[in-house]
Amino acid sequence: MKKILVALFLITFTSCGYINPVVEVKTDLNITIDGENIDGIQGEWIIIQEEEKKDGKNTVAIRIEKKEI
């Protein structure tokens, strides 16, 4: 009986190792400046994220710059 249970556990755990999740991330940005929506501004934009740790606090700074063509 113990051999059957061990065999079942082994089959169960080894079959779970082949699962690969499919992850897709889509990001839509809605940018407002001083309460006004700027959806009409077209062009290429550069988004820069900087992470800092000051005084034991994690700070994330995000800069958005328009790419010159």
Structure description:
With 69 residues, this protein is of the alpha+beta class. It has a domain at 29-69. It is 20% helix and 35% strand. It has 1 helix and 4 strands, in the order H-E-E-E-E. It has one helix at 2-15, and strands at residues 32-33, 36-37, 45-54, 57-66. The protein has a two-stranded antiparallel ribbon. A two-stranded antiparallel ribbon has the order 3-4. The longest helix has 14 residues, at 2-15. The protein is elongated and about 70 Å long. The model has no long low-confidence stretch (mean pLDDT 75).
Poorly predicted ranges (pLDDT <50, ≥5 residues)? none
* Biggest beta sheet attributes: 2 strands, antiparallel
Mean pLDDT: 75
The gyration radius over C-alpha positions equals 25 Å
* Widest sheet, order of strands: 1-2
What is the helix tally? Answer: 1
Element order: H for helix, E for strand: HEEEE
**Through-space gap between termini:** 73 Å
Helix content: 10-25%
Oligomer: single chain
What is the β-strand count?
4
Q: What is the approximate shape?
A: elongated
Q: Supply the helix-strand structural class.
A: alpha+beta
Strand content: 25-35%
